[in-house]
Amino acid sequence: QVQLVESGGGLVQAGGSLRLSCAASGDIFSINTMGWYRRAPGNQRHLVASITIAGSTNYGDFVKGRFTISRDNAENTVYLQMNSLIPEDTAVYYCNADVRTSVYTRNYWGLGTQVTVSS
Description:
Elements: E1 2-7, E2 10-13, E3 18-26, E4 30-39, E5 45-51, E6 57-59, E7 67-72, E8 77-82, E9 91-100, E10 105-109, E11 113-118
Parallel strand pairs: 2-11
Antiparallel strand pairs: 1-3, 3-8, 4-5, 4-9, 5-6, 7-8, 9-10, 9-11
């Protein structure tokens, strides 16, 4: 059993910053790609950023240099530093991870953390 627990969401004014964290726990042998997705009301879930165990990163086009993803492999934790936030960034942000356990490899999702950016 593996759990992903997000934290760090909240309400912030436009132009402000937030740092999201996601800690994975449980039967973890290794984690390949970890990432953040978001879903705004009425929209589909979109990739925000992802990072491999080697540190290769990928960002959604809308990030435009405002967000930075990082991870601590020893702590099985991924972070998302969000700067220059705009109201369009308002969404539920979900953590995602490809986890290899002692038995199998599968993809896991966190429950999400709300980010609200006021204008």
